Amino acid sequence: MLYCYAEKGDVALVNVNPEKFDIVGKFPVTLGTDQHWAHPVAHKGVLYVRHGNTLMAYKIKS
């Protein structure tokens, strides 16, 4: 599975296989400024997403 961060501000969890691109879930990044160009980082069960001058942390491991 991959975390994808789109230019328009959506983060999606995607299940990828040769037949199709399945979006399992997604959410918008609403805080921050400027373009959505930073790469998300996953570390120790937390997904970090930077948008301009804002850094958000999302718990991705239960």
Q: What would you say about this model in short?
A:
It is built from no helices and six strands. With 62 residues, it is mostly beta strands.
The number of helical segments is 0
Mean pLDDT: 93
The largest β sheet comes out as: 3 strands, antiparallel
What is the chains' assembly state? single chain
Shape: globular
Strand/helix succession: EEEEEE
Calculate the terminal CA-CA distance, rounded to whole Å.
Answer: 16 Å
Helix content, binned percent:
under 10%
Number of domains: 1
Low-confidence stretches: none
Strand order of the largest sheet: 1-2-3
How many DSSP-defined strands?
6
β-sheet strand percentage: over 45%
Structural class: mainly beta
Verbal overview:
The protein is 0% helix and 55% strand. The protein has 62 residues and is an all-beta fold. The chain has one domain (2-59).
What does the secondary structure layout of this molecule look like, with pairings?
Elements: E1 2-5, E2 10-16, E3 21-28, E4 41-43, E5 46-51, E6 54-59
Antiparallel strand pairs: 1-2, 2-3, 4-5, 5-6
Summary keywords:
62 residues, mainly beta, 3-stranded antiparallel sheet, 0% helix, globular
